Each structure stands twice: as C-alpha cells, then as structure tokens.
Amino acid sequence: MISLKYKNNQSVLVVIYAKSTNRVLMLQRQDDSTFWQSVTGTLEANETPRTTAIREVGEEVGLKIEESSTALFDCKESIEFEIFPHFRYKYAPNVTQCHEHWFLLAIEQEFEPILSEHLAYQWVSPEQAIQMTKSSNNAEAIRKYILKVK
What's 121's DSSP letter? Predict the structure, then answer.
C-alpha cells in the first residue's frame, strides 16, 4: 500500500519589510507565475508557528533568524481561509480550509534573497504589494500591519 503524505493545513505567513524604505518583499510562485505573495509555509511535525516562520524564511529567501530575534514579530493573529481550488491537491481529500498564523519580519534594509522555491522577487510599496497578491489574507496582513507603520 502506498502512503500519501499530505500537507498540514496549519501554516504561517511572514510579511518581510525593510524599515529603511518601508517596502515589502513579494515572491513569485513557481506553481502559478501570476501569484505573488509573502513568505508562507506549512507547520511540520512538532513545530510551533514561530519555528515554522524561522525555517520558512531561511528556506524561501536565505535569511537566517535567531530563535530569540525581536525582528520576527508574532502578530498573535491567525485566520481561517479557503485554500485555492488549484492548490487543494496538496491536501488530504475534503480539506478546503487552512489555519494561518501571521508574522512580520522587520529588517533594516532591502537585500537580495536567495530564491529556492520562487521564480522572482520584488521589493514594492505596501500599496503595490496589496495589489500584486491574489491572497486576500496576505493583502489584509500588509494593510493591517505595514500600512499602519508608515
């Protein structure tokens, strides 16, 4: 019997922004080139949302964060959202919702990410980032936490 491994429907969203320019890092997905987003990822076994956020930032943009770093801010907010139909094949049958934990990562200045899971990146204004992403929850996190900083 073949054992299928499905994605966990617990995830993180990490909005990275540069304090010096107040611009947001947006990443272009490989599996949908019209989809731009912040760092996202699924919780693995025995991970907390914070450890997942740290791991995903390292994997997706090559930035190493210390566990004790105050630059990674837990918004203490999580939402339920509907998984886009064209991404549901990654989840167990009948799983249509995802529980996402929100984080912000404030860095001093823009950097060139080391991409391993995305096609391209752009540093853009929060307003542009909101327009770029297809993810309404990604847009809401930027609207709620980054536009307030300006």
Answer: E
The model's pTM is 0.90
pLDDT at 49 over 70: yes
Q: Where are the alpha helices (DSSP H) in 1-134?
A: 49-61, 126-132
CA distances from 108 to 7, 20, 99, 142 (A): 33, 6, 30, 18
Rounded to whole angstroms, the Cα distance separating 65 from 48 reads 15
Q: What does the longest C-alpha to C-alpha distance in the chain come to?
A: 55
**Closest by alpha carbon to 146, among 16, 13, 42?**
16
Q: Residue 96 is encoded by which pair of tokens?
A: 């249509």
Residue 11 backbone zone (phi > 0: left; psi -120 to 50: alpha; other: beta): beta
